[in-house]
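Let us work through a complete example step by step.
Step 1: write down the sequence.
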Amino acid sequence: MDDSADDTAAAAPRKTSRFMLFALLLLAAVVAALWYDTRGRIGSTQEELARRLQEIENESRGARTLARTAQEGLREALTRVGALEARLAESQSQQVALEALYQELSRNRDEWQLAEIEQVLAIAQQQLQLSGNVRAALLALQLAESRMSRADRPQFLPVRRALTRDIDRLKSLPALDLPGLSLTLDRLVASVDALPLAFDERVERPAAAKSGKPAPGAAAPGTASPPPAAAEEGYFERLGGEIWRELRQLVVVRRIDTPEPPLLPPPQAYFLRENLKLKLLSARLSLLTRDEAGYREDLRTAQAWIQRYFDARAKNSQAALAQLKQLSGASVSFEPPSIAESLEAVRGFKARRERSS
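Step 2: predict the structure and record it as tokens.
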């Protein structure tokens, strides 16, 4: 029993050692399997990692190439941007210079236009004051207003209002037909040479001489001679008629209730007509200068001369007197208007521009 117990006790450690050996072998196998598996996985992982690293390296190489290309493009872009900025700065400076030049030209153009308008208005004002030429002043105002309207500048509005008021003021003046009156005076001057003088005596001719008929008792050509008694009777009738005509020429019956027309020799008659023309031309000049007193005095003198020195019963004289009477009825005097408001507006605008500049 002791031997069996000893064998049993000896067998137990052997079993334990075998179990331990089996366990170690199993563990070694497991560890070997795990190691092999792990090694395979590590190998595949390394291969995957190497592949990924290669891809990453390739991608990084491409990225570097792209980055280099991008840097070159960026550098070119920066160069172009710099050139564009330089051109932009140059264009801006040119634009500023052009704007300054345009402003200067615009200012000079406005100044020239205002100076020209001021000169035109000053001449129109002189025409109004010296000769009362309303038409010339009205044309000058309309010209100035049209030029300012074409400029279309808001700062010109006060000046345009003043021009419009002066234009309305001149248009409201009573119209006078200066060209028509002047033309009538010119026709009168041209008709002076045809006016008959009052002292021209027309010698009365025999009725037979005027009509071209033979005298009473005279035989017509191609007819038979009258008998001697009829011829003698006709002779005495002709003799009596001639004596009567001679007596009528010796005695002239005139009315003494009218003044006798002055007898003028031909040289003085010539100077009379020339002086009458000068009077009519002086009346025309007074008409153009709106000198009503001188105009009426010249017409009155011309009318008195025609009535005194010329035949007032002649048609030419009557027509001339009628025209002089019609001319005397026209009123040529008026209160000369003024365009000082427009002138002051233009000059004030120029002064304000000079102070602002």
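Step 3: interpret the result. DSSP finds ten helices and no strands in the chain.
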